[in-house]
Amino acid sequence: MLYIHTAMNTSIPRRIAHLDMDAFFASVELLHYPELRGQAVVVGGRSVHQPVLQPDGSHRFSRLRDYVGRGVVTTSTYEARALGIFSAMGLMKSAQLAPEAILLPANFDAYRDYSRHFKAAVASIAPCIEDRGIDEIFIDLSDIPEDSLPLARRIKQAVFDATGLTCSIGITPNKLLAKICSDLDKPDGITLLGRDEIPSRIWPLAAKKINGIGPKANERLAQMGIATIGELAAAPVERLVCYFGRTMGTWLHEVAHGIDERPIKTSREPKSISRESTFQRDLHAKQDRAELSEAFTSICLRVADDLARKGYVARTIGIKLRYADFQAVTRDITLPMPTADGREIRQAAGECLKRVPLHQRIRLLGVRASTLLPATAIDRQPTAFQTELPL
DNA sequence: TCTGGGGTCCTAGGACCC
DNA sequence: TCTGGGGTCCTAGGACCC
């Protein structure tokens, strides 16, 4: 029962790795600015704080205390984390904790480049890879005849040779445990774990270490007197179902026992493509109408551009607003025919906007395209549903 | 001076159909 | 006269992740 069916339909235990780049964005920046090594460095904010090249060839860097605006921390070096600065923290708040920390703007083109390189390096050793974003991957090592420790070392070396960057790897029987384990010995670590070690090494960990248990679920667990994964494992499944519903309750019970049979997905189709923008100041629908309208159109055109570049058309167009009080609302509309056209997207998004209250000032505006189809599959005929409609 | 941007998945109610 | 039941689509909101 501890085994899963592989593609060959034989029951062998899987060997799944999770690889996580160490402080990825910040580490890429340190490759470009090695003089910052050992310092508290923060990546984030709007790109108005580029380092300035001095006449003597050195760089003048912005400090956190100089930042003004609505940015958040994207990544920070381990030195900055030691000062209490973590991802998603407001920059203005982090400036209070570490005013002298160096602030660098995010350079996503460079990170994407390094991302491709580290993934290619891993693929040269282990090709069965699931993308988990720019800085992490799952790898199915089941079919590779090499012991886990030397294999992990070889993968880490390949990543370092290709990028100059370190990563941390967890190797376990499934994705859930691998994700937990890659975080246990960071940075530059390797963690191997077998099923028999779940009680001793997983159960003492906080429940929120499980991917999928966020702040809300953690708070509800705390109300039940559950803080660790072990306490979650000891809870009767009926009690969890009672608190969280059937789906979430049974899932919590399973993951606490280290059960996770999700396969490695080596490719997937996108479900939605979206763009959003937080304004530097909150805008009013009437007083700032021109500014708002221009931003709205620009966002729609960017979505259209993204659709075209990626080769998709969308049947559903939606908007997202965040008001000054941070409350968010969404509206969407499904079109009779899929589109990737900027004007049609702007038109549909405009219809959505009419259905939203606009007395409060607006902090954020976003546009989303969903129900995607490959552009090649479409000759812009009405869908079957439409053609069958009686006149 | 709080709180980015790009995603996925789940829930839930109503419409609509058989 | 207390009036099914299941399936799918559409819409809105929210939790969560990187």
What topology does this entry show?
Elements: E1 4-5, E2 11-12, E3 16-21, H1 24-32, E4 41-44, E5 52-53, E6 59-60, E7 62-63, E8 73-76, H2 78-81, H3 91-97, E9 102-104, H4 108-123, E10 129-131, E11 136-140, H5 148-163, E12 167-172, H6 175-182, E13 190-192, H7 198-202, H8 215-223, H9 229-234, H10 237-244, H11 246-256, E14 272-283, H12 289-310, E15 312-323, E16 328-339, H13 342-354, E17 362-374, H14 384-387
Parallel strand pairs: 4-9, 12-13
Antiparallel strand pairs: 1-2, 3-11, 3-12, 4-8, 5-6, 7-9, 10-11, 14-17, 15-16, 15-17
Helix pairs in contact: 4-5, 10-11, 12-13
This protein binds a DNA duplex (18 and 18 nucleotides) through residues 44-46, 68-74, 87-93, 95-96, 132-136, 211-217, 245, 247-248, 270-278, 316, 318, 326, 328-334, 363-364, 366, 385.
Which properties best describe this structure?
DNA-binding, Alpha-Beta Plaits, single chain, MutS, DNA mismatch repair protein, domain I, 5-stranded mixed sheet, 17 strands, disordered C terminus, disordered N terminus, 391 residues, 14 helices, alpha+beta, DNA polymerase, domain 1, 4 domains, 4-stranded mixed sheet
What structural category do the secondary elements indicate? alpha+beta
Number of helices: 14
Determine and state the CATH class of the largest domain.
Answer: Alpha Beta
What's the CATH architecture name of the largest domain?
2-Layer Sandwich
Task: State the low-pLDDT regions, or none.
Answer: 1-9, 382-391
Strand order of the largest sheet: 10-11-3-12-13
What is the assigned CATH homologous superfamily of the largest domain? Reverse transcriptase/Diguanylate cyclase domain
Q: Ends: how far apart?
A: 57 Å
Main sheet overview = 5 strands, mixed
**Average pLDDT figure:** 93
What is the global morphology? globular
Strand content: 15-25%
Topology, number of strands: 17
Number of domains: 4
Determine the fraction of residues in helical runs and give it as a percent range: 25-40%
CATH fold type of the largest domain: Alpha-Beta Plaits
Q: Roughly how many Å is the radius of gyration? A: 24 Å
